[in-house]
Batch of 2 targets.
Target 1
Amino acid sequence: MVYGEVEMEHRYQYDETGVLRRAEISDIDGEVTVLTFDENSRRT
């Protein structure tokens, strides 16, 4: 939070073994960037 406003928001999803599979990043304008990851947590 900056001056009472949320500037960015990150949401992460992990598989059942704890490996990062997806990240959603929202900016102050509401634009969402979705990143997906393989079983080795590498971006796909």
Target 2
Amino acid sequence: MSKQSIIRITKEFKFESAHALKDYDGLCRNIHGHSYELKVTVAGTAIKDETSPKLGMVMDFGDLKKIVREEIVSQFDHSVVLYKKMPESLIKELKHQFERIIITDYNPTSEEMLVDFAARIRTRLPKNLELKYMLLRETVTSYAEWFAEDNPE
């Protein structure tokens, strides 16, 4: 019997979010928004159980969608994301004025957001699957990438 092939599947997501970068030396120190695009790739072998409704799938795209929506999109969409070391008075005022404020343990760059997103997704994936790749695009010409091979668990 031959070895099963490892297959990668990818699902794409879109969400709107604003952020500001603490102590940044350019315009991104101001609160501004992005139309983010997130691509999430997982890998595994296709299900061979003839009795499974998921026969032939690595993972149901709907199941991947549910995980990413719950862990990322539903939380970050139409939110303002700020580093916890921003001025306390600013955070307090924004929380008073707006509903969707996310305070992070990191400066919310695309790079750091990907690290956070990877950790959230990895904990939710079935044991037989591996998160392989993510891309977070914040503008038409700018994006960050995360590769599993560069980030062993």
